[in-house]
Amino acid sequence: MNFSTYGIVSLGGVTVGLSLLGWEIARWWPGRKRVAKQLVRLVPFTLAALYGMLLVLSAGGLLGLGADWSLWGASELGDAVLEYGIGSDAPNVTRSSNLVLTPGGHAFVIVATGVLIAVWTRRGGFRWDLARAVLCGITLGLSSGVAGIAGYVLSPVVSTAGDVIVGLL
User: Fewer C-beta within 10 Å: the chain N or C terminus?
Assistant: First the structure.
């Protein structure tokens, strides 16, 4: 176990994230004729995955630490499956430049956390579909490939929105 790899995503971590995304799409798939009508069912997963990307972009605190631990665990699990399951390497695939949220962006994350907790506890049961989505976002948010673009675009948008909201108060 190498706990010094916080904030670093390996190919194994991205594999876990893509597996969670694939799981969700496979369970959602309504058939070829009804795809457009059923896209709205993916909105909760997408929003929770974007929240996971925001968590991994958080600079620190308890939420950032939880995201780092989740990223580390998913990367270790994915690395083990790749290395011992099929004999592949698991290189580092973290993007070279990491964006950090502004104070307004961090405030936005706290508000989003409250909303997510409200949704998770609304019907008295824990929603594993949202937990999978958050982990999916955490594992894909720092990757250097196409999946990481969402995190790269999301950071300035959320930071700007949070700064505007804070400025209005």
Answer: C
